Amino acid sequence: MDYGEKPIRGVINVIMGGNEEWAKSNSKRKAYFGSVRNVKSPLKKPHPVQGWQVKFDKRDEDDILDTYSKDPLVVKTLTASFQVKRLLVDIRSDCIMAGLKERFQAFVNNRWLVFVAAMWMQSFTGPGYIFGSISPVIKSSLNYNQRQLSKLGVAKDLGGSVGFIAGGLCEILPIWGVLLIGALQNLIGYSSLWLIVTGKVPVFPLWAMCVLIFVGHNGETYFNTAALVSCVQNFPKSRGPVVGILKGFAALSGAILTQIYTMINFPDQASLIFMVAVGPTMVVFALMFIIRPVGGHKEVRPSDGLSFTVVYSVCLLLAAYLMAIMLLEDLVSVSHNLITIFTLILFVPLFIPIVLSFCEGHRDPAEEVLLPKPYQHDAGNPEQDTREHEVVSSEFKDENSEEVDSLVVPEGQKRIAQLQAKLFQATAEGAVRLKNRKGPHRGEDFTLMQALIKADFWLIMFSLLLGSGSGLTVIDNLGQMSQSLGYDNTHIFVSMICIWNFIGRVGGGFISEIIVRYRLK
């Protein structure tokens, strides 16, 4: 075959990336080598993905070797060139796989993915808020009076309040281990209650029933603790929004589970207890390895404000939608197919925040440590960095003005840098001594023993103890209150109180963050 005026050198140049003009104009070469896009020499530019664009297969190689079979030197040169080509193709494939692996690792270790997964888990793991819906069937099936039912409700509330065990286990176990214990407790407690209510096993004494519901509801403390610990460590500068949103979704789970129960259309009300036992456990098993503290950038970024605004918008949209469909189903006779559509649409807002996982860029933790402090803390406020540098420099110039002025300019700058380093070291040593003497301050991390000796801890505890009792009493007895007023379907009232509880918690986290962040400005 004829490859033009310069057959040997032309073929070699095309393979190795040279003589681009000849390669583009020769029609016979294109028949063997296909189109050439941005042919560059891999020897001059060693990046295999961008530098190798010549495409031809094994048959083309054999045809070329057959053409020049009479010249051993050419055959040897072409064979080596083909081997280089195949090597570069293999390297390109390895680079693509390495890039995909890196992207996957960055996605899995993204703190927004952990936050969204925690939101999903909290949306289905708050069974304590629908006790008002299952208490009527417990009362009728076990022939309990109101006093016995109230004792069962107290045991449930105690199970949801004893969370120090979960907090202690978070110090010695991984987060997935804490979630596993909580899921098993939820499954054992509520599934045993369902078996007793449906008559599949003999009725236990009242104290044993209290133990079962205590164990089942205590599993919720493991879910809350794991979600809060992971997300607060991932967002240490945005604790208010994180805690408010996660606790809000825990309250909203009552309305979500009720809507799912309405869609499935179980034959009896006792099936709601079965769904409470199985549903949260399945969700936790699916997300237990995603919810965890992750490395990387944990300080405030300029994009965090917009991201939390998106989450708040989703919260308001979800609450409004749930309220609308609950009222519609109660006031109008709605077909089961339409209820199914409403419930499926309910999951759409829950998946919107997953977009945040793709919006935040990934940075290696080692690179974060090497960054200067202004880039670690507030990359969007260069004026503050300039002011801090000017203040430090002016202090040293004031204290040592004569000494510094007597030096030449480079030597003076060097002297200022040395004095700055001494000041920073002295400040760090003083901070360590102060911390060892007085313990952590507000906003820092506390151990359990450090918190027990703080007045703030006991003030918060007694405030919750005195303030949340009335709300829990109403939630636990909402089913009996609704039936006493002549309403057969108590689910609508339980769902409404869950929705308003959700709005109050999310709003509380938002307002508290504003007060804490801007009160000193």
From TrEMBL:
Its main location: membrane. Pfam families: Nodulin-like. Keywords: Membrane, Transmembrane, Transmembrane helix. It comes from the Eukaryota. InterPro entries: MFS_trans_sf (IPR036259), Nodulin-like (IPR010658). It is found in: Membrane. Residues 111-356 form the Nodulin-like domain. It is a multi-pass membrane protein. The keyword Transmembrane applies. The chain crosses the membrane at residues 112-138, 158-181, 193-215, 272-294, 306-328, 334-356, 451-472, 492-516. This is Nodulin-like domain-containing protein. It comes from Gossypium aridum.
